[in-house]
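Let's do one together. I've listed all components of the complex below, 767 residues spread over two lines.
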Amino acid sequence: MKYISQENAPILEALEKMKIARLVPFDVPGHKRGRGNPELTKFLGEQCLSVDVNSMKMLDNLCHPVSVIKEAEELAAEAFGAAHAFFMVGGTTSAVQAMVMSACKQGDKIIMPRNVHRSAINALILCGAVPIYVNPQMDPTLGISLGMSVSDVERAIKENPDAKAVLVNNPTYYGICSDIKSIAKLAHEHGMLLLADEAHGSHLYFSDKLPVAAMHAGADMAAISMHKSGGSLTQSSILLIGDRVSQGYVHQIINLTQTTSASYLLMVSLDISRRNMALRGKALVDKIIALVQYARDEINTIGDYYAYSSELINGDSIFDFDITKLAIYTRSIGLAGVEVYDLLRDEYDIQTEFGDIANLLAYVSVGDREKDIERLVSALAEIRRNYRQTGREMLKAEYISPQVVCGPQEAFYGEKESLPLYDTLGRVCSEFVMCYPPGIPILAPGERITEEILRYIRYARKKGCQMTGPEDMELKQLNVLTHI
Amino acid sequence: MLWFTEQHTPNVRFSIKVDRQLFSEQSEFQRIDVFESEEFGRVLTLDGYLMLTEKDEFIYHEMIAHVPMCVHPQAKNVLVIGGGDGGTVRELCKYKTIEKIDLVEIDERVVDISKLYLPKVACALEDPRVHCYYEDGLKFIRHVEDEYDLIIVDSTDPFGPGEGLFTKEFYGNCFKALHEDGIMVNQHESPFYQEDAYAMQRAHKRICHSFPISRVYQVHIPTYPSGHWLFGFASRKYHPVKEVNWQAWKDLRIRCRYYNCPLHAGSFALPNYVEELLRDVED
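Okay, and this is what the predicted structure of the assembly comes out as:
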């Protein structure tokens, strides 16, 4: 066997060889290296279209990798410290779903925090597993949900010894980490798997200045968004697994829903980004840490704003903090995060990741330049000078503990009726309602609609949050179960 | 034969015959070149874009400095952002009443190289009233409040290192950094070629949002794209033409080759198509 190392990028190398071979394409895609679609080629570039090809012998096949994709996945596994890595082309959503569906079958229980991404609950609709929610702690000032406390997880495990897995966000969108090591240990002691949603944590693997990465903490599976902090193309992702799960079975689960025409643009971007992070990740993360620390210090000297960091750590629900995250508390200038988010985009041509009702999140990555940070900080200073409001009544975000009446699958497929939103009080919702981003459900299928929830939806919508999920995209109507 | 060519648009080129290249360096921020030419004397280019020539720089520097100084002759504290070549500072130093000139240039090498190769332009940078700060203009201005009588934004184009100096947050911060009767004058791009005109409109729109008085004046610069160039005049109190004490300026007996008071007044009269471009972005 030939020797390959992290310096290699097997898919990239194979694509380069394919280009030199000058094959005559009598296969799909029909644009034939772009020649058949000049407008698309002009827009995306010849270089790009020439490698938008189908699987073939020299390029392997994602549905059944035996050569270059297999090698690229092995290199990724090595780089991330996993037993195996799967390249995913359906976003981290597909990785989270594969993870949940590999661990749970119809009727199985899975322990998870309520502030999971919708993809995790979607997976439950698909496979019929039932969530056991652990209420995450809430920071009353910042209005964000935190990590799971180990004792809460322990209680959930004791009360549900038949649960199959525990799912952990590592970290949350805001950078908050639970004590994943202890939770992994607990789960394993009770014969459960530990799954990690690392959509916001692929960089954790490459620095010792950041919270521990899931696989290093003993997780059995981790879904990592290479396209977020890893630098690969949008929609590309990696699913990592450990020794406790069967590689072949996970592969079967992935193939249930995965395309048979996986994009080589996405796969090669994973290959190149893995190489980049493996070889230079430490230095890149150091640069991000320095940029974010600079931004945080400058923002905190503007006044009123609070760009928080590791000082929040409390040893339990905020066990650790990812200092590459730039989350800013804005309510102190009398504006909701989403209002500052809108002002930045509309008035200052700055697009941030999202704003919730009290915080703004700016995503800082390897692609950022110092002068862009200056713009962000200056615009925030200007927004405070020009738009600050005092004495405004602001809804205090509080954790809304869900009343789960039935499982997501039962609710989603159950007999339902559509009612005007504000007539749904007391009924059981059969669909999702969430602000996107961050895409964390306010209501998930099977949960009771309370006055508190309706008030929150009304307020978030008034502040300009984009509400997604329901069949009625304008959210005038909401589907509720008829029989409960 | 050696020629320096700048692409003014994808379809238009402008060339100057060059005797020799005097200097070339890639600094931390940009590529800096100095050429010697028969027609224009020495030529400074940044990232391949012509910044100034010895032959026509007086037009730019006189018009960016004397227009606001004539309107507001009491100005004592002046901030120049960009302008590392020193031309704007040279014109400002002609006013004995100015007490302090802060020059904020992101690229120290531009200043060093100008002192070495463009002494006629950089000659006043050693004036004791001049203080040089080598940092991002946007960052510098953010920390300043109610400090200056006049801010001159002598920037490169709205791409590359000068990008941040064409943003709304920058103009807003300039407003905040000025006294209540302060003036900001800025390099405002050209109305002629479409790309430049877009940049000009965007800048005007953003300045209008921050300043109660926002006017534009024109100037003729042979070596800039189309030769037709604009400056922005943004002010918290003074109108650029009405109630200006022209006689007071004449009494200062400052020698200029381009600037004079009737030209100052006339430069605010703009062609119809330019007026229209500006009106389009005014609310």
